[in-house]
Amino acid sequence: MPASDKESPRRVALFVTCLVDLMRPVVGFAAVKLLGDAGCIVEVPGDQTCCGQPAWNSGDRADAQAIARKTIALLEKYDHVVVPSGSCAGMIARHYPEMFSNDLHWRGRAERLAAKTHELTSFLTDVLGVGTVEAAFDGAVTYHDSCAGLRELGIREQPRRLLAGVDGLSLTELADSEACCGFGGTFCVKYPDISTAIVDRKIGAVAASGADTLLAGDLGCLMNMAGRLSREGHTVKVRHVAEVLAGMAGGPAIGEGAGKEGKQ
User: Fold this and answer.
1) Whole-angstrom distance, CA of residue 221 vs CA of residue 201
2) Burial class, 217, CB count within 10 angstroms (exposed 0-12 / middle 13-18 / buried 19+)
3) Using an 8 Å Cβ cutoff, are 205 and 174 in contact?
4) Residue 126's Cα: distance from chain center in Å?
5) Is 154 left (phi over 0), alpha (psi -120 to 50) or beta?
6) Could you tell me if residue 25 is inside a domain?
7) Contact (Cβ atoms closer than 8 angstroms) between residue 85 and residue 18
8) What CATH number is attached to the domain comprising 240?
9) What's the confidence (pLDDT) of residue 257?
10) Are 145 and 228 contained in the same domain?
11) pLDDT at residue 258 above 60?
12) What is the largest CA-CA distance in the chain?
């Protein structure tokens, strides 16, 4: 439940992310439920687009800045911005101020937005003081720590703290859980052989864990691992952590059914 010393509901913007919007909308619905249950007034700004990370990582500074300016103007009126993705949250919270280092006006606006932008599980635990969620999940899970969330935002204990209160869930730590899955956005396109070698090590660790479900907080990583697990004949199911925390893990896992996930 939320911490008792919170005086009024927070007006929160959910920054959905491209992959959630196009590939796994249930993650967005799960985030809305979790935030609403924690007492937030949740809005999903209709004019949001990509955060600009692909352009930024590819060296296209002009387009990245144009996207960032639009995103800042759209989101800066909210009390908080919450993102169900460590990489996109990291883009806004860490890289927006960096990209405007030589522009005093936009740097100030970027820094103010960065200060109130949070990854979903971090916002629930670190800002709202949520200790437990009302959810049940019958199964053994393991958890992958996505690179951007871990290294840019310090996201590690927050999802585990929330998962510990899910009825029926058993968590087995993944060997080298902090190692990259090989996705890395455009990295997997530029360096497919290296990416495949990295993800092969990761799915080997997943299989060795004995868990029947793999969780993480970044959909790009999850799709990458789900695709490789499927192609190598593993039966481990793959889900975003928000689905389990919100009690919305009843549908097809990532890569299953008619969805597009994992078919890269």
Assistant:
1) 14
2) buried
3) yes
4) 16
5) left
6) yes
7) no
8) 3.40.50.11810
9) 65
10) yes
11) no
12) 53
Q: Is residue 260 part of a domain?
A: no
How many domains does the chain contain in total?
2
**Could you give the 3-state DSSP secondary structure of residue 16?**
coil
pLDDT at 12 over 80: yes
Chain segment 43-65, per-residue pLDDT in tens: 999 999 999 999 999 999 999 99
User: Residue 238: beta bridge partners?
Assistant: 214
What is the reported pTM? Answer: 0.91
Is there a single domain that holds both residue 154 and residue 103? Answer: no
Pair (32, 118) in one structural domain: yes
Average pLDDT rounded to a whole number, residues 64-72: 98
Cα 143 to Cα 130: distance, rounded to the nearest angstrom: 20
Residue range(s) defining the domain that contains residue 59 = 11-125
Q: Looking at the domain assignment, is residue 194 inside a domain?
A: yes
Does any domain span residue 34? yes
Per residue in 142-199, pLDDT (tens digit) is: 999 999 999 999 999 999 999 999 999 999 999 988 899 988 877 887 888 998 999 9
Looking at the fold, whether 117 and 137 belong to one and the same domain comes out as no
CB 140 within 8 A of CB 212: yes
Distance in angstroms (rounded) separating the CA atoms of residues 45 and 83 = 13
